[in-house]
Structures are given as C-alpha cells and as structure tokens.
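Handout, section B. The chain below has 235 residues.
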Amino acid sequence: MMNRTPDTIKHLIIINIIMFLATQAMPQQMMNLFAMHFPLNPLFKVWQLVTHMFMHANLMHIAFNMYALWAFGIPLYHIWRQKRFLIFYFAAGLGAVLLYTGVQYYSFMQDLHSLMAQGISKEQIFATLNNGQVYVQFKEMGDIYYSVMLGASGAIYGLLVAFAFYFPNAELMLMFIPYPIKAKYFVPILVLADLFFGITNVMHTPIAHMAHVGGALVGFVLMKIWQKNGYKPWY
C-alpha cells in the first residue's frame, strides 16, 4: 500500500507516527511543546499553530486521521501534485485552529468581563488560573485556559470537502451508519453535525468540533477560488 502512496503523503504519515511515538514516550514534554495551547496560557508557543497537526491523543485518533489522509489524499494529490496539495492541507489545518481558538477566545473574554463586572480584578483572575486554583466561577474559563488542541482532523476535513467537489457521487460510509452515502451529501451532513455540536455543546466530548468546521470552511473557500481557475494543475 505504501509503495503506491505519493512520497508527500507518505512523509506526512511518517512524521505523524514519529510524533505519536515520541508523545507516548514523553507525554508531558511533547504536549507542552507541540500541542496547541490557549494563546493566553504561558505554555502557548507560536509554532503550535502548525505542530498541533502532527500530534494525536491515542491510537484510534491517529489511525483514523492517517487512514483518511491516505484514502482521500491520494486522489487529490494526483490532481494537484505536491505544491498545491501541501498548501491546501496546511491552510485547512490553520483554518481549523484559528476558528477553534477564536471561538474559545471569545467565550473566555466574555467570562473574564463578567467576573470583572462583579468586582474581581483581572490580575486576581489570572493569578488564580496560573496557580491552578480553578474555583466554581472560573470553571469554564479554566477549561479553556488549560485546554489543548491536537490532531490533523481540521486538515482532513478540508480534504473531505475537496474530495466531495471532485468526486461528488463517490459513496462513503460512517461506521455507525452501514449504508453508503454520496460524498456530496455525506460531507455537508458531517460538517453540519460538527457545527451543531460545536455551537450547542450538547455532547461533552473532547472532540474539537469547531476545528473540524474551520478546516472544512477553508477547504470550501479554496475550492471555490480554484474552481474559477478551472482546477488548473499547479506544479
């Protein structure tokens, strides 16, 4: 299988696997350095905007993402070639982290201003957060302040959108829906579900739904722009 995989995709998969194995060996150090932290947290570093795409939480997480990268990436790579594929992949990943972080930042600042209106100083709030003493009134802020984002899912969602543009009638299946659905229906349903869960937060899971939406959104915008150029190969 790997012998038929373009080198670009093969290298992305290998880097992800190396980072995953390193994380298993040094979990705290790798998470602190390379997972995406909230920008106001002292652990945030600018390179995390990119490195978080190569970090994964567990074996199922990396297996699903790498399989999707392989399955959807190969046909797109043969259309775009290396330069356009890499630009698309990393643009979708950046769009994912920016939307996810933007939503988090908005929520954090809303809570911050609310607490300050109650007479709690900004310095006291951050001192409490930095000391790890997350009181009841700081809980939601603490969840955001200490949260980390990791995984290639945002970039993968961008690839899913592009795949649906090129192969709208290709039939795909969800694990819990054993019935094939055409890509032109499957992908919008998947993205809308993430948007719903991201906005409502009805499912309290560690899944970064808004990151998925961000990756899909950037993928859609890029595809519409490239569509105007007739999908001309870019070498």
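Note. Residues 14 and 142 are 34 Å apart (CA to CA). Compare this with the example in section A.
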